[in-house]
Amino acid sequence: MGLRPFASSPNDESPSETGQAKIGVLALQGDFKEHIEMINRLGAEAIPVRLPVDLEGIAGVIIPGGESTTISSLLSQFGILGPLREMITSGLPAMGTCAGMIVLARSAVGLDHDSLKVMDIEVRRNAFGRQVDSFDTELDVPALGDGVPLHAVFIRAPFIEAAGPGVEVLATLPDGRVVAARERNMLVLAFHPELTNDSRFHKLFLGMVDKYRSGEK
Q1: In a domain, 100, yes or no
Q2: Do the domain assignments include residue 217?
Q3: At what angle do helices 81-89 and 68-77 cross, to 10 degrees?
Q4: Active-site annotation holder among 161, 183, 192, 202
Q5: Residue 194 designated active-site
Q6: Is 56 within the bounds of a domain?
Q7: In this predicted model, what pLDDT tens digit does every residue of 103-112 receive, in sequence order?
Q8: Which residues contact residue 88 at a Cβ distance below 8 angstroms, ignoring those fewer than 6 apart?
Q9: Is 35 considered catalytic here?
Q10: How many CA atoms, within 13 angstroms, populate the side-chain half-sphere of residue 179?
């Protein structure tokens, strides 16, 4: 893959321009309800995805936080893994948060199950320790465009250890560990934006959906 190694709120008053874009939120396990509520608040339509038929007609997909091993296993058991992998590879916008970042990554240290493996990153699971080691912090995210720090919640979080040349780093911790990135139609975050009132990353994702729906690369 040619990976390069890395060092080891605003309100929701303005709805998204996506109108009634249908966003699928993987609802097999994890905190999918919070993502659904956030997307609906922004003016798009969020639907739970539990079976392959639920993928029909969606303009984007969110893979939430939870337990990456369980999510990966259920993707296979419910027959979603193959179709969703093909859709994302073909351009469907995808956003992964915490466990969702692990599921999207081509390589995840500590994940034994098959996963989507569509984004050119290598991640480390539970990189900051156990549940008791969870923390929150302020992040500078220039891609959000307003200069306002983002309050980020990390719960048994991963981080990106290496990435291919097409991956854009969006945020790092002070020690250099990469916790947010984007590659083509994929956006991944090591933290949980759905657990705060800050909707800027969801708006950024819906902007990616807008481009996808309009046929813009």
Answers
A1: yes
A2: no
A3: 100
A4: 192
A5: yes
A6: yes
A7: 999 988 878 7
A8: 61, 94, 104, 116, 118, 185, 186
A9: no
A10: 30
Task: Single out the catalytic residue among 34, 98, 183, 202.
Answer: 98
CATH of the domain at 180: 3.40.50.880
Instruction: Return the closest-CA partner of residue 46 out of 57, 35, 30.
Output: 35
First to last CA, the chain: 22
**Catalytic-labelled residue, pool 122, 161, 183, 194:** 194
- Which residue bears the tokens 């690369």? 217
Could you tell me the two tokens for 58? 């969606």
19: in domain: yes
Question: What is the spatial distance between Cα 43 and Cα 145, in angstroms, rounded to a whole number?
Answer: 21
- Cα distance between residue 33 and residue 39, in whole Å: 10
Alpha helices in 17-172 (DSSP H): 32-41, 68-77, 81-89, 99-104
List pLDDT tens digits, range 13-72: 444 444 578 999 999 998 899 999 999 999 999 999 999 999 999 999 999 998 899 999
On the question of pLDDT at 6 being above 90, the answer is no
Domain count, the chain: 1
98 classed as catalytic: yes
